[in-house]
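Archive entry. Fields below.
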Amino acid sequence: MRSIAAWLTIVVLGASLLFAAVSLPFGSPAMSDMDDYFISHGQEQTGANNIVTSIVFDFRGFDTIGEACVLFTAVFGVSVLFRSRKKGEDYEYE
Amino acid sequence: MIDNLPFLVVALTIILGIYTILLKKDLIKIIMGISIIESGVNLFLIVLGYRWDSIAPIFTGAPSLEMVMPTVQALTLTSIVIGVATLALMLSLVMIIFRYYKTTDVSKVTKLQG
Amino acid sequence: MSDCMSKLIRTTADIMFLFITVFGFYIVLHGHLTPGGGFQGGAIVAGGFILLIVAYRLEDFLKWFQKNTFQSCEVSGLVLFIGTALAAIPLGYLFFMNFLNGAGGLFGQAVSFGINPGVLNTAGTIPVMNIAVGIEVLGGLSIIILYMTSGIRSHEEGE
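PREDICTED_STRUCTURE:
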């Protein structure tokens, strides 16, 4: 019973993904006004030659602050899980 | 249809990831399936921003001035780093589960306490 | 994991560690001219540290680098990043403004438009943020591997 539901899910999702992959136009994006503005005004407003770095750190810098905090939270979570045992304290599951 | 080959590769990668999550019985293999789906989504983001006969959006020593779209490449950088962070937490949780249950079979890890 | 590797692997890891560190910091520093930046270069330098952990035992590695070194690297990277973003407010601009661009100070030379060979002195606060993120990523990834490895060791000793 479980494998029938799994195979049905895989067939339905796979058919919809393949239909979307065949019908998308490759190499000619529809609307590119924002990226044309970034390419033509990126050098005079930020002073960097690399447009991708100027987008990551200057035009959309808030997303980079959030990403640095996500990395910090992951390190924080790993260090909480592997805490060493003090004297006289035992784990709940041993 | 042969022009759409990158999109077909993306669809195939995501279908393989969904198959691995739904039909495998080992916890490590399920985590590998999640990582495969994340790789497929990152490839899809980069393929969306391509233009014919264009180069990378960098002005240092560039051979021409036609460039691809740079915004989706910035989104992909963030997505890769978040994928690394969630993979580290998932593997740490599997290590703690193995320490308690002594097995990684997903049909035996069924006791919810509390 | 209780024996260190053979002498060939240990010697190669010693030499390759220096080259990997220099290459990683080159990618971090030239993030505004060539492909690269803070996250990519930080991951490369963390790979150099992980090579040393694999080649030597964990006790020998902890004699050279303690855990507190990597923790202070990560915390100082994040504080420097947000401090550079907040430093634009007392100078009269908005939050996160690029206030060093074209001002003639630390990274403030003006860039020539169009196709040019890159000059390192340009682009304002972007190289400062690249260095901060690079230090944070190398500290964070090394701390994750250190905690996971010592978690395996304490589980094996406790059995």
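CURATOR_NOTE: Chain B touches chain A through 44 residues (CB under 8 Å).
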